[in-house]
Amino acid sequence: MSEIPQDLAYTKEHEWTRREPDGRLMVGITDFAQEQLGDIVYLNLPDMGTKVEGGEPMGEVESTKSVSDLYAPVNGKIVEVNTECRDNPESVNSDPYGEGWLVVIEPADPEELKGLLSSADYAAFLAQEAGEEADV
Questions:
Q1: How many CB atoms sit inside 10 A of residue 24's CB?
Q2: pLDDT (tens digit, 9 = 90+) per residue, 6-15?
Q3: Which of 3, 48, 50, 120 has the most crowded CB, counting CB atoms within 10 A?
Q4: Which residues contact 37 (CB under 8 A, 6 or more apart)?
Q5: Is the model's pLDDT at 22 over the cut of 60?
Q6: pLDDT score of 17 more than 50
Q7: Residue 81 belongs to some domain of the structure
Q8: Residue at 77 is within a domain
Q9: Is residue 92 part of a domain?
Q10: pLDDT value, residue 1
């Protein structure tokens, strides 16, 4: 089963978020997502300063299997882009929760974070999608 760190929040579109001490959100795709995509070969990430809307596409992840949208977890502004990861997209496969992070968003409204899934909720969502019982 995919790794689901308990200190992160998740979306149903398979993005993870880590709240930084300054309130900003580091964002990447989950272990489950990178497993489903296969070898990631290209990342189309938003530019610094881009305003994003929660639940709307903000970029693309291209793998040997398909091209998938990358969704913004909350409304806000892109304040950092992982250019190292963009130049070496395979790091999303090897370390999705570490070096494979994609962007940092400054949330427009911190209250929106309450709408994200906990690790247990995300595990239950994955199990439901697979038609299985959650094993958390």
A1: 18
A2: 999 999 999 9
A3: 50
A4: 29, 61, 63, 65, 66, 68
A5: yes
A6: yes
A7: yes
A8: yes
A9: yes
A10: 58
Average pLDDT over the chain, rounded to an integer: 93
Q: Check residue 110 and report its DSSP letter.
A: G
The two three-digit tokens of residue 111, written as one number = 């209250």
- What is the number of structural domains in the chain? 1
> What does pTM read for this prediction?
0.92
What per-residue confidence (pLDDT) applies to 132? Answer: 57
């929040």: which residue's tokens? 9
**Token digits of residue 36:** 């489903």
DSSP one-letter string for 55-70? TSEEEEEEESS-EEEE
Residue range 74-99, pLDDT digits in tens = 999 999 999 999 999 999 999 999 99
Domain ranges, residue 86: 14-109
Q: How far, in Å, CA of 26 to CA of 100, rounded?
A: 11
> Burial letters for 59-85: b for 16+ Cβ neighbours within 10 Å, e otherwise?
bebebeeeebebbbbbbbbbebbbeeb
Residues forming beta bridges with residue 52, ordered by sequence position: 76
Q: How far is CA 115 from CA 10, 93, 121, in A?
A: 9, 27, 11
Considering the domain boundaries, does residue 28 fall inside one? yes
Query: Which CATH number belongs to the domain containing residue 28 in this structure?
Result: 2.40.50.100
